[in-house]
Design brief:
The protein has 491 residues and is mainly α. The protein has helices at residues 2-12, 49-61, 68-76, 91-98, 108-131, 136-160, 183-200, 214-228, 231-242, 253-256, 308-313, 320-324, 357-363, 378-391, 395-410, 424-438, 445-452, 455-459, 475-480; strands spanning 81-84, 267-271, 274-276, 279-281, 303-306, 325-327, 348-350, 373-377. A two-stranded antiparallel sheet has the order 1-5. Strands 2-8 form a two-stranded antiparallel sheet. Helix 2 runs parallel beside helix 6 (136-160) and helix 6 packs parallel to helix 8 (214-228).
Amino acid sequence: MKNYRFITKLTLIATLALPIINSCSDADFLDMKPLGVAAEGDLTAGGFEEKAFGLYEKIRTQEGVTDWYRYWFQSIRSDDAAKGSTSTDASTLGNVMDNFVYSASQFAPNWNGHYSLIFACNDLIVAVESSGMTDAGSITNEAEAKAIRAFAYFDLRRDYGEVPIVLNKIVKPSDGVKAKNTIAEVDAQIISDLEFAAQHLPLSWPAYPGRATKGFSNSLLAKLYLYQGEWKKSLAKSQEVINSGQYNLLSSYVTLFSKAGNNSRETIFETQFLLIGATYYTNNYYESQGVRGTGVWDLGWGFNVPTTNLINAYEANDPRKSATILTSGQGDGLGNTLPASPPLAQLYWNKKAYTLPEERKAFGVNKNYWENVKIMRYADVLLMAAEAANEDGNSGLAATYLEQIRKRARGANNSILPIVTGGQSTLRTAIKQERRIEFALEGERFYDLVRWGDAAAVLGGKGYQEKNKYYPIPQTAIDQSGGVLVQNPNY
């Protein structure tokens, strides 16, 4: 029922729009006004809550943020995933991401969508600060906007490196024209936003799951510090989340990736999806990853499929393998057998996007419109703590955090996934392996390889070069800036 109250509130402030599922158009970077936000005066409740709720709707509906572009950028270019679908479907984009032939003419929605979200956050923040209001509710709404702005800048930082920091309200297109800032400057802005958010956000929102929290802010801080190699700071922020008492691992890894796993105790932040009757509060993130077939097996578009490289990376008997990978011609673990390949276009499919048969029956549709997109979950915090502790020289503590993840994976079968012991080098290898398996097809792998310095060795055979750690800035954004924006090196 909490989900329904969340959606009802959003509906009341007129921020819920049906998703544009099949649109591949590029938004105009320099002509973005915050969308999906109720105007001042639309409600009589007072404060800035209507603007805050609009930000969550925008995370879900804004093209380029949590729709299918998210996994194109974050998953398909790793060694874990391939384009999938049929050979001719999105073949040009598949070649770009599978083989690192990046083009400045591709994927402008990723850039545009994140800046549109940032501009909406700025609108709220400026409104609060210019109002002079210092009541707890207004400051909380400002903190929500700063947490979400930091999330958007963190994505941009990972994808493009140096990006413009825009903190002002966008009134006319030229207000958004800024030169690129250094990564250090972007990081400093993210840290400033997250520290404010962590200070002013609550530990939880019992009535409205899906809103940003202190735990989300601290988790994102821990991840940024991890990327910086600030081990002590990353460990401290991870432990703040761990010791908050708000989160636990679900006992079942499989349950995570189902409707039952939405807003669980393992959730730190996730985009809310719902299907109520004929009304879809969703986007194409999961629909586009479902098994591509016909009839009862028409479950999706078939993108973001596992590679044999990923399949071979699992330890023997690791149950997360069967929870992550579906194989054509084999059972789904629920009493159903997939058609063979052919006629299915792929041998392997992403089971984390799979719709359970009882869910399809209950909703009367095959495709996944109801599983939330997991942006940050507690398992990530535990593995960040393990990595930070290990790199800081405390391998014993690192092993303790690592073991929590492996214990959940093995369940009651203590004969598989043995406890990892050893020194820093051994733990480092184990943590890298665990991150790959735990978050397979969820979008962490490529960025991990880059920050570890492993990308060239692992991805070089696919065409990866050093410049490919960052994507080229869309040429449309450069053109619209009048040359103020400068393209990333070697593009």
